[in-house]
């Protein structure tokens, strides 16, 4: 049987693009379908526009810091529409970079939606295309809880296309997206209420890290309501009336509600049943990203693994190496660093203290320090940084690294390599740091009183 392509990839986000390029390097004929813009959620509705908003919103506080350092006060206004114009120009440039990279690699880019006709055939626009192997990399979509009036709440997608910044916003969900948008919007001067049904923000992270972000949000005037959720949302002349249930019940009236309660695979229009690919909420895959059909694979947010760009890319490359490079590769998820791009930034790699307790039977020690970085000594901001190590007590092996503070993401991802290589607390103590810096604190940490 001959096919039109050796590999057909559905979705040109980070997972699909990485897989398509690497597969083409192995000399196979590859095409990729994208129903929207090259770059996927990451470039168009996620990491990139979000991080540009983080940068934009930081200038207000940096201006105040500059005055503390002796700069003159100057009147400056933020122009949201001007920012949107320059941001979107950069996103269009990145879309082009993605398309160019595919073309250079010899991958055919087809700007159409693909749906399964049968296990080897796809309907792509008005064409029928066959492929020996198919990779599904269709990403995810926001999910909203069943709350009366939830249709009035925006998701992160719409936050990038607001006509103007809201004066007040209620954000439902205290995970990555809720915390990041709370921080960004507060930076722009909005009144922010962050509502989370769990007892703390960032519940998957180390409890000390989550508490440090919560404290910093209190100082920044972000109102955080934990053990609380939204009961109803109803339009009123002043905006949206939000009733609450749980620990806090006082209703709010806000201009905008953002729903940030998690994301799920985007499988609705793929017609997976036509190809016999098993999926419940996510596409089921084995360690090599193979679905229930031996010639169909899936990577990235449409599977039930970590929803992060570097993970989708790693899965895409591992798929290509395994299937076309004859070098079977399994992606390991234990040491994936991650960052919450809030102010202050929070980053982690490895185990939290609570997870280390569960996994290692309680035989752990924790080392941590909270300190004021030098930069803030001249400013009026009570900004504290936190650094924390979780260590296996009998071997001294470091199993978790956590930080809250400026550049936490950059610092933690570098230290994450040593964690993966099995570094011990003693070896870290022998390391010579850079002074003055925040990262040097990791090399001289005292055992924390809470350690077991
Ligand atoms: C607001 C926000 C901020 C984020 N910030 C970060 C961050 O800072 N760092 C980080 O690591 N991760 C971040 N993420 C997560 C990251 O964006 C995702 O993990 C990553 O984009 C997943 O890549 P993917 O290739 O699996 O899917 P996606 O990037 O979602 O790409 C899938 C592509 O498939 C296309 N597609 C879907 N169905 C079809 C079809 N039938 N035919 C053709 N094309 C189709 C879609 O249009 C899309 O372009 C963020 C996510 C959000 C929502
Ligand atoms: N910086 C980054 O790397 C980054 C940034 C954004 C998103 N992402 C990825 O996107 C994924 C989705 O992000 P997210 O923030 O939507 O999901 P999340 O899983 O991180 O957080 C969802 C939050 O919503 C809360 N919640 C759920 N239902 C609720 C309800 N009915 N009432 C109140 N609270 C409720 C949960 O307790 C949780 O705190 C993340 O898991 C992450 O993998 C990563």
From TrEMBL:
Pfam families: Pyr_redox_2, Pyr_redox_dim
GO molecular function: glutathione-disulfide reductase (NADPH) activity
Cofactor: FAD
Domain FAD/NAD(P)-binding, chain residue ranges per copy: 5-316
Classification via PANTHER family: GLUTATHIONE REDUCTASE (PTHR42737:SF2)
Family: Belongs to the class-I pyridine nucleotide-disulfide oxidoreductase family.
Protein name (database record): Glutathione-disulfide reductase
Gene this protein is translated from: gorA
């Amino acid at each position: 049987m001959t096919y039109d392509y050796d590999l057909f990839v559905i979705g040109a986000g980070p997972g699909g693009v990485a897989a398509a390029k690497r597969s083409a390097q192995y000399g196979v004929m590859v095409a990729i379908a994208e129903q929207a813009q090259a770059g996927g959620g990451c470039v168009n509705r996620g990491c990139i526009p979000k991080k540009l908003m983080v940068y934009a919103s930081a200038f207000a506080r940096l201006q105040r810091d500059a005055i503390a350092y002796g700069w003159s006060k100057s009147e400056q206004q933020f122009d949201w529409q001007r920012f949107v114009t320059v941001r979107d120009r950069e996103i269009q440039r990145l879309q082009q970079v993605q398309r160019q990279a595919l073309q250079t690699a010899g991958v055919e880019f087809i700007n159409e939606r693909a749906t399964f006709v049968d296990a080897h055939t796809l309907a792509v626009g008005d064409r029928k295309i066959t492929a020996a192997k198919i990779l599904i990399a269709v990403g995810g979509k926001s999910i909203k809880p069943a709350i009366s009036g939830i249709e009035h709440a925006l998701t992160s997608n719409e936050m990038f296309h607001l006509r103007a910044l809201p004066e007040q916003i209620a954000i439902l969900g205290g995970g990555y997206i809720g915390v990041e948008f709370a921080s960004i919007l507060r930076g722009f001067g909005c009144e922010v209420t962050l509502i989370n049904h769990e007892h703390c923000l960032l519940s998957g992270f180390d409890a000390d890290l989550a508490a440090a972000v919560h404290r910093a949000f209190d100082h920044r005037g972000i109102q955080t309501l934990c053990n609380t959720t939204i009961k109803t949302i109803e339009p009123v002349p002043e905006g949206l009336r939000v009733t609450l249930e749980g620990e806090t019940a006082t209703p709010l009236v806000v201009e905008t509600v953002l729903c940030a309660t998690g994301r799920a695979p985007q499988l609705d229009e793929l017609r997976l049943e036509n190809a016999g690919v098993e999926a419940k909420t996510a596409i089921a895959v084995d360690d090599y990203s193979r679905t229930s059909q031996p010639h169909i694979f899936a990577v990235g947010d449409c599977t039930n693994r970590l929803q992060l760009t570097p993970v989708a890319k790693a899965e895409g490359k591992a798929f290509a190496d395994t299937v076309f490079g004859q070098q079977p590769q399994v992606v390991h998820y234990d040491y994936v660093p991650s960052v919450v791009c809030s102010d202050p930034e929070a980053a982690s790699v490895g185990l939290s203290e609570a997870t280390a307790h569960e996994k290692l039977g309680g035989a752990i020690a924790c080392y941590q320090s909270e300190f004021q970085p030098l930069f803030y000594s001249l400013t009026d901001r009570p900004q504290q940084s936190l650094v924390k190590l979780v260590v296996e007590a009998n071997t001294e092996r470091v199993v978790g690294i956590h930080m809250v503070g400026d550049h936490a993401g950059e610092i933690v991802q570098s230290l994450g390599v040593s964690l993966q290589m099995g570094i011990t607390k003693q070896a870290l103590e022998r390391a010579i740091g850079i002074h003055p810096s925040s990262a040097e604190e990791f090399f001289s940490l005292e055992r924390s009183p809470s350690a077991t």
